[in-house]
Sequence to fold (630 residues):
Amino acid sequence: MAVDVAIACIKAVVMLLIALQVMAMGVYFERKVSAIIQDRIGANRASILGFAGQGLINTLVADPLKFLLKEDVRPDGADPFLHTLAPLAAVIPALAAFAVIPFGDVLEIGGRTINLQAASLDVGILYILAMASLGVYGVVLAGWASNNRWSLLGGIRGSAQMISYEIAMGLALIGVVLTYNTFDLQEIARRQGELIWGWLPAWGVIYQPLAFLILFAAGIAESKRIPFDLPESESELVSGFFTEYSGAKHLMFMMSDFVEVVLVAALVTTLFFGGWQVPYLGREGFHFPWGSSIALPSLVVAILQIISLSVKLIFFTWLQIVIRWTLPRFRYDQLMRLGWKGLLPVSLLNVVVSAALVLMREGRA
Amino acid sequence: MGVTPISWYLALSGVLFAIGTVGVLTRRNLIVIFMAIELLLNAVNLSFVALARSLGSMDGQVIVFFVLAVAAAEAAVGLAILLQLYRLRETLNADEVTTLRW
Amino acid sequence: MSVPIFLLLAVLTVASALVIVIHRNPIYSALGLVSTLFLMALLFVGLEAHMVAVLQIIIYAGAIVVLFLFVIMLLNLQVEERETVSRPLIGAAVAGGLALGLLVLLGIGLTPLAPPAPVQPGYGGTQPLAERLFTAYLLPFELTSLLLLVAIVGAVVVGKRQA
Fold:
């Protein structure tokens, strides 16, 4: 009993560490990749004992330190409780959603078979949708609690945007659920290990390419990244709904931004790109389609899977950052039109077509 | 330190229902009255789910599913009505919208 | 669900419900509603109704209360001024509420409930819920979709700004 609790805690800590490390790398990439895209070097002045690490010290040590040591300013008429609650309401659901992302298949250790997923819910995908819908409160409360009508406007726009794109996200997820016939993310990740025609790993993107595109776009819109960042619009509204926040609370909002980037990356990876799957790697080792195989102990397999997940997460985080620094921003009415008149009908079409194909496949089998 | 008996869930549901009733009767702000009504619906949801568990059947949960959908529909239309009322009367105090014609 | 966890959740739920009903500021009432709904979802999980719990968070806590907050913010509702309800009326309402609560508790205490029936492992998940929903409850399901359509159209029409 106590061992079970300990194992659950360790799994939660491992998943949290993966998420936070990739988030930290995301922050660093943001500075460096944007610098490369804009043909400059980026922040590289801060250094410890002469070691500046190409901007690593600046982004990962100096910046957070600066934020944590800044004075916590609260505007005059702002409600203190709501003002403090808003950044928490933004970060906590985003981090909590990582509980259902699997980071490996199983680990067979000491006679136990441990499912490498922090929380094995049978309604995993819906849990992620639930956490996404709870993330709206951070925005809404931040806009309101700032006692600033432009923040309020940014907050209301931001939350309207988030709830609009939640719908497209949910419908894209339905397509995935139809294909794999399960809500559990670990099952979906496992089924992507099967081989089509004997050599092609059955990754989700092959079965649901449209759903991948819709989910990716809706996910970027949910996390209010450019090109969907009108609620924040750095160059125009200072910081939009979190203008009146400074110090640690500002850091929490930025953290929630990057955590959601990693969450979208994790979702896309797990549902469409195999998650922790390494091609041809099973529980006992590699089984290549041309017949040879390499036997590996369970721990090595698990570590390879964690590395595979991390690499894919880093790739999709990098992709979102490149998208951010390449595309201009949507105007608000364009944004809403895209959500309601663009992504929603397309995702409905995807659901209908997927359902028809699944019925045909089952009818033939 | 065993498993909680189902009647405790029903008791909690009853307490929440009573609090919701007091809210509907006592508050004057129409939105808060509406929120108290949502609390009433939720208390009943809890009672349905508890009894579904007690009987081992899923029917109670299906009813809760419907209650959720109906509550969403009701909230949408109700808030639209409140919005319109505010535009016409500049107030959301239940004591000030007592006349049927104005 | 074990007794200490249930008691903790029950106390927190009752406290949040009291916040809804008692607090002056409508935004705090809305936040009380969110926390009540979230705690109820946790209670549902304790009753092994996972699907309904997650649906409750998505629909109720994630959409309906956000709608409430929107309306409160758009109408810029100030903190309620001094309650115009007279003291005796509040006393009567609270007494009535207490009476109702005690009556319910009495009824529950006097009715013996059989111990919970054993349930198969998939209980409360998507499959059993869908199985009931699309067989025995198909008609209400279709009617609910019609109801939602009516509600969408109704909300748009009723909320329109008169030209």
Notes: The mean pLDDT of chain A is 88. The longest helix of chain A spans residues 2-37.
